[in-house]
Amino acid sequence: MVNQQTLQGNWNEIKGKLRSKWGQLTGDDLQATKGNVDELIGVIQRKTGEARGSIEKYLEQMTADGASYMEQASETVREYANQAATSLNDASKQAATSVRYGYEQAERSIRQNPGEAAAICFGVGMLAGVVLGLALRSR
């Protein structure tokens, strides 16, 4: 038998399927049951003349299909999350390697030409000071 919680959890989807299968059902008929399984089965029986067993079987099949779709969706989300995590991990390793390589190159260049490196740093500092001074003065 379909349980109350499953029926209420998927109520909007189930209402549409019920109206599709049994066109005699109105939105008011379904709304009046408020997701109560026994009331729902009674309304369907009164409106359609369908046997209780076949209605229960249909409801069970419908809720089982919904659970199956949810499991498939969860698995798909998990797979995408794993792929994203792997891609992010690979990208961070590549970025770390690039930064490490650039740092090693800069360190090697400074060791080979310390005077030139000091002159460049001095020049960059002077240029930054002039730009900052002009920016503050214009305010």
Task: Give a verbal description of the structure.
The chain has 139 residues and is mainly α. It has one domain. 87% of the residues lie in helices and 0% in strands. The longest helix has 61 residues, at 52-112. The mean pLDDT is 83.
Largest sheet entry:
none
- The succession of helices and strands, N to C, reads HHHHHH
- Oligomer state of the chains in this structure: single chain
Number of helices: 6
**How much is the average pLDDT?**
83
What fraction of the residues are assigned to beta strands by DSSP?
under 5%
Q: Count structural domains.
A: 1
- In the predicted model, the low-confidence regions spanning at least 5 consecutive residues are none
Which percent bin holds the helix content? over 70%
Which class do the helix and strand fractions yield?
Answer: mainly alpha
> Based on DSSP secondary structure assignment, what is the total number of beta strands?
0
- Radius of gyration over all CA atoms, rounded: 35 Å
Shape: elongated
